[in-house]
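Ligand: cytidine-5'-triphosphate. Inputs:
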Amino acid sequence: MVRVLRDRRIVLGVTGSIAVYKALDFVRQLTQAGAQVDVVMTEEAQAFVTALTFQTLTRRPVHTTAFEAWDAEQAGHVTLGANADIMIIAPATAQSIARLAHGFADDAVSLTALACPAPLIVAPAMDHYMYWHPAMQANLEILKSRGVILVGPDHGPLASGMVGDGRMASIDEILAVTRKALGRTGPLAGRRVVVTAGPTREFIDPIRFLTNASSGRMGYALAEAARDAGADVLLITGPTALPDPKALDVVHVTTAQEMYGAVKHAVQAADVLIMAAAVSDYRPRHVAREKIKKETPIQVLELERTVDILREINQPGLLKIGFAAETEQLISYAQEKLHAKNLDMIVANDAREAMGSEFSSVVLITAEGIIDRIERQSKVALAEAIIDHVAAMLRTRVATDERTP
Ligand code: CTP
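Predicted complex:
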């Protein structure tokens, strides 16, 4: 379960596009994460999918008309909008965007949107030429100028059969934008956080390399948790099999040296660096220009040390968080790294349990000693707990700075 979605009141406006089928999966994901979702549909949307389908998924009444009977408990769309933490319109047709831009309230969705003071996310879905029509672009500009968050549309195959712009953004993207919008006033609001993730590759020849079993999951979860806590996030990642997290910046690197370059540049504008990457400590001293043939007599691979990124980065004011992946003497090795790399906090875990897994348990250590032990959890839940500590450390730092003349 993603914490930023739990118990949040989300209003989903659904309008008449074939992309409605994606909205079903969106609702499922939101409700599974513990959100309360109220669906509002236009008449056109009901031509594609019935209210019953959304009702079954949300276990809540679905609103389909602008003129619902007044109910003293639930004053229809007016209270729905007024009590929402966020409203999302996905898919949003050309017609519904025009209605929104000009303040019409002649269907259930536009009426609810008018009566909703919470942030509004709009995911357009339409044909290529409709999307690029000056009238549509002008309407989108109006929405943007009012602070509406537009997500997509994407380029790809459209309902008309042509390939172009106008395809509704992916559910992953709309979900990430929703999480970011819900977390905008969180404990890391206004902070810039750089997170590294995944392994690095150190090449032996053009196709072979040294690497490790890091999946990147911990770093990706940390980047998303920081984003959900309101931070502006840059994820610097080595090669992983995971899709890029959305609604945050991602830079791909391959070698330790490339990661160092990217981190050095990124931290200049950052408040926090979290090094969750499993950086290779060694690289081949010589990289063969061509593929090494097996006829070549058996060779000894000569290695040299890579740069220790965390140790090298020492920017005043930057909160530095490291990881210690150990197979023995967890706490003492982690404490040595905390001091040697001049860290504010180190997250110690058992490399055999954590590497490549969706779960891990961690011990958080600062100069004061062990500050938290978190038992085996999903990396998503661990990341949220680690981010809470980071936020607390930043708060303490601000309080200390304010006291110091
Ligand atoms: N790290 C780094 N640059 C390296 C190696 C590690 O910045 N070249 C960072 C990791 O991202 C992690 C921390 O340093 O946050 C500790 O990494 P770890 O692999 O546990 O320790 P090492 O310093 O590599 O020491 P050892 O391999 O001897 O345990």
